[in-house]
Design brief:
It contains 13 helices and 15 strands. The chain is an alpha+beta fold and about 400 residues long. It has 3 domains: about 1-150 and about 385-405, 3-Layer(aba) Sandwich (Aminopeptidase), CATH 3.40.630; about 155-245 and about 300-385, Gcn5-related N-acetyltransferase (GNAT) (Aminopeptidase); about 245-300.
Length: about 400
């Protein structure tokens, strides 16, 4: 086996065909980091003139003029090949030390233990505990839960071998009913162009203030668009509602119920049906009044409701970011965006729709449990990755840890 630097083209070719590839380990991500003063190196292992392992190494100058090295979603390697993992890690340690680095961080795109829709471990399922144990034996230290840079818990839905009808049938009935209701409401899913990304940003900004998280700058979304859009590997959406059409549809719904009431005789046994229809008319009339008030307040016929950003790198579609205007949450438009992308995935040969991050240890009902409940409604399963690990390269690692502990 031979450890060597790789060209970007060599790395990309290996990445394209590797089962552990992720958008985060794509060469395009290094371009974003380079704008923030990160440097990029590609390294790998060659055996019999064939690359058998590789990783993208990003490095950034930190304290004491030492470099932090980070391999996003790395390595791309067969983690069950202990000899290969050991060789690659030991060579990386020497390489990083020569590059004046003090730490290597990795967060492999590898499942830890297979789990079901409830987050419970599947008996006899995938178990990569041996991989974790080997990393620890090599000197890696596991980053505590809640302190990882990338998500460690996800929720996914398999698409391979399924059609739209099957996916709908397997959904939670409440989710399926919401999708059907929203489709009839006239809400439109619009894909945004580069020049329209400020609309996406505006919704994300409102959501971040409400949910107390840090939103990305517009330049980040624009940068991702430039890097991935030409290859159709990224899409930004907003949902819109034409209020006049919406009101017209609701008025038709009212008239249908009025006609039903008029068709019923005055017999006592129809009293219950009439009462239910009357209640429905009152509810629909309230929605009409609310929509008319929005037109007056906003002075517009069409409103934006929500936004979403997806990465589309086979074999999976990843639901990466989303936001909603709080006043329009009642329209549940995020259900429609998910359904449109699930249909897109089926039609275009994607194997998985990855709803991405959910709270850790969901069976303890943590904060933001509702995020998991929303995604769970589409059916699927929980995925727990093996997490993030730090490999000390020089004594500066321990010193910096001590300094951070004292400051904390």
């Amino acid at each position: 086996m031979k450890f060597r630097e790789l060209t970007e083209e060599e790395y990309r070719s290996f990445w394209e065909n590797h089962p552990l590839k992720s958008f985060l380990s794509a060469p395009e991500i290094s371009k974003l980091r380079e704008e923030l003063n990160w440097k990029t190196n590609y390294v790998g292992v060659e055996e019999n003139n064939k690359i058998v392992a590789a990783t993208m190494l990003l490095s950034h100058l930190r304290h004491f003029k030492k470099y932090e090295f980070y391999s996003p979603r790395g390595y791309l390697i067969d983690f069950h090949n202990k000899d290969l993992v050991d060789f690659f890690t030991n060579e990386l340690k020497k390489y990083i030390k020569e590059k004046n680095g003090y730490i290597l961080r990795i967060d492999p795109y590898l499942i830890y233990k297979e789990r079901d829709i409830n987050g419970d471990i599947v008996e006899g399922g995938v178990d990569n505990s041996s991989v974790v144990n080997n990393l620890l034996s090599l000197g890696f230290k596991q980053v505590p839960k809640g302190h990882t840079e990338q998500v460690s818990w996800m929720f996914s839905l398999d698409l391979e071998g399924k059609d739209e009808e099957t996916i709908l049938k397997e959904m939670k009935s409440s989710t399926r009913n919401k999708i059907r209701k929203i489709e009839k409401s006239g809400i439109n899913v619009k894909e945004l162009t580069y020049d329209e990304l400020d609309r996406f940003q505006a919704i994300m900004e409102e959501t971040s203030e409400r949910k107390n998280f840090t939103n990305r700058k517009l330049s980040y979304y624009q940068g991702m668009y430039k890097l991935f859009h030409d290859k159709n590997e990224i899409k930004f959406f907003i949902t819109e509602l034409n209020l006049k059409n919406y009101i017209d549809n609701l008025k038709n719904d009212v008239q249908e119920r009025v006609d039903k009431i008029n068709s019923l005789s005055d017999a006592k046994y129809n009293d219950g049906a009439k009462k239910n229809l009357t209640n429905e008319i009152e509810s629909i009339s309230k929605r009409i009044s609310d929509a008319e008030n929005i037109i007056k307040e906003k002075n517009t016929d069409t409103i934006a409701l929500s936004s979403s950003m997806f990465m589309l790198i086979k074999p999976e579609i990843i639901y990466l970011y989303s936001g909603n205007y709080e006043e329009y949450l009642k329209f549940d438009s995020q259900y429609l965006i998910q359904w449109e992308l699930i249909k897109y995935g089926i039609k275009n040969g994607f194997k998985k729709h990855n709803f991405y991050g959910i709270p850790e240890d969901i069976n303890t009902h943590p904060k933001d449990y509702g995020i998991y409940e929303f995604k769970r409604g589409f059916n699927g399963y929980v995925e727990e990755l093996i997490g993030e690990y730090e490999l000390p390269i020089t004594w500066h690692y321990s010193l910096l840890k001590l300094i951070h502990k004292i400051k904390k």
